[in-house]
Amino acid sequence: MDKLFAEINEKLQFFAENAASQVEKGNKAAGSRARKASLELEKLFKEFRKKSIAAAK
User: Fold this and answer.
1) Cα–Cα distance list, 8 to 25, 28, 29, 57 (Å)
2) pLDDT tens digit sequence for 1-25
3) Could you give phi then psi for residue 53, rounded to 5 degrees?
4) Residue 17 to residue 31: CA distance in whole angstroms
């Protein structure tokens, strides 16, 4: 679970940097990277939810 949490934090930081670059500077490539990171985060969040529920039981 610690490894998963660290991976989520890393991806969130990557997403935030690229999303900000798109919004502030209009960087289209950064927007593409941010969208890709959001899809990866979605998968990680689902995995975290599964593990969290299992740990609570």
Assistant:
1) 25, 24, 22, 23
2) 999 999 999 999 999 999 999 999 9
3) -65, -45
4) 10
